[in-house]
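Q: Got a minute? One more chain.
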Amino acid sequence: MIALRRMLIGLMALMVFGGASGQNPEPATLPVGSATIAEMKGEVTFHSATGDVLTAQPGTALEAESKIDTAKGSVLLNLQDGSQVLVKGNSHVVLKAPTAERGFWLELLLGKINAQIQKRLGNSPSFRMGTPTAVITVRGTKFSVDVNKKQKTSVEVFEGLVEVSGLHGGALGAPVLLKPGFATGVDQNHDPEQPHGMQNRDMNDDRSNSGFGGMGRSGHGDDDHQKPGTQPQNNPTGSGEHDHEDN
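A: Always. Here it is, folded:
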């Protein structure tokens, strides 16, 4: 009788321990190059690495080579390393695996992103991203990248340092180093322009309202980029945030 009682007590202890373990699972680790959707507004389309349309919502994980197209919408991404990227309206972004050949975390093919990159310490590899005309390298900073319909890349820095290099037939040209409050532009097969002060911009406003920890008041619908696959719209006034498209 005593032996049976001990056996029952042992079984009950195992059941309690097993239930507690099930209630506190180990947190899932995202694969390198993947991201999760933190916030989303408006019309955004996601495609998998194989081209399938994805049904996505906040919390959805996107693997490397996933494609993101925003129309009148925007999406805030949490990258696998803890960095955040806000993809703004009328943009086309491809997530990349930094362990691949070029070491990119993402490619911006059209449109605009705001990025807050996790600080790199010691010998940790730098964060790198690409555009059709430039390569941007950082070790922890806040910056924006804009690619217009002529594939000109514009980079603005709010915090930290950013290195920008032009692409010449796939080869990197001479880089420029941007400090906070400075910007540069890169045309096809050209080196970056010499750094110049950001014009008509409020750095503090951009830092606090452009998606660093939230979508912000300018989360979507404020970009004049051509939507992929559509005809460009006329801008008869020649004014607005993206006047540099016609430079």
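A: Residues 13-27, 202-210, 212-224, 226-247 have pLDDT under 50 and may be disordered.
Q: Perfect, thanks.
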